[in-house]
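User: I'll paste a sequence; please echo it back and then give the predicted structure.

Assistant: Echoing your sequence first, then the prediction.
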Amino acid sequence: MQVKPEIILGNNALAHLRDWLDTRGAERILLLTGPSQRFADRILPLLKGLPVDIFAGAKVHVPRDVVVEAKKRMQTVAADTLISLGGGAATGLGKALRLDTNVDFVAIPTTYSASEMTMIYGVTDGRVKETGRDERVVPDLVIYDPELTAQMSLRLTTTSLMNALAHPISALSTGSLSRETDQQAMHAIETIYRALQRLIQSPQDRTACIWALEGASLAGRILSGAELGIHHRLAHLIGGSFKVEHSGLHSVLLPHFVRSLHKSDERLYKRVAAAAGSLDLPADLFDLLHRANAATSLKQLGVPADDFKGMLTKHPELVTPWIFDPLRGERPSIRNT
């Protein structure tokens, strides 16, 4: 049975953190953040009276040297509780630390990455990203507070939700979902896409932020129990090889992957598009990225064409008819199929 964390979601959700920690008997906290330590000033007052050390070295794709450094800090301060505060980088670091240590783990996401809901973890050595699944990495508690995600830029809001949207679509493409989970995936697509359309017009709409958090959380649970589709495997490979930011990478790949579904599995494509309420989902996704001034090609993300082609020669199992479309970044549409 898939391990599920306790979830607190809603306005002022952060206010419940201290009661939960006191109930668990937390004594020494290690707070994991990125270098900016964004929102740490909102968390620290809630931890007053508890020894708290901050490790602000979380990085995308969880480099192994960062994990080693954070583990040393955790041992030095004898932390019994980890709190990750941030997007996938902070959450991923917490998961890597939790893998072989017996500590409590609270995830406080500030994006819609949904990493906090999955058993999937990854650590990067050089240009190779190693991924795995283990129920031990799942947080004990996830706190979703819309005040944190409402502060994201329009670009990051859009790419983060595209990342979340990729999870159920990728899972559906593998045919590995049960009937119940299949329906949940469709609900996640509907909820995330509705939130995305509202937030691209009003990025700080708190109601839409709650929709987005609900949809992303569900998307993460679906991905955790599913096979990884080619879209997701490509994202890990490209991200690890070229150190590309994860949500931006998923966003560039997704419109082209969805267009490929129209060719390879038209029935599934129609169900996904209907859940989103779109007549031409690949084009609409691409246009949303353009409206948010987000990257629409791998080239814009800094992936060199020659190196990309060289990478694919080592992974022929991931070569697909659409593989070079996101490199060029032309607008995909089912009308061009």
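Residues 154-336 form a domain with the Dehydroquinate synthase-like, alpha domain fold (CATH 1.20.1090.10). The chain is about 50% helix and 10% strand.
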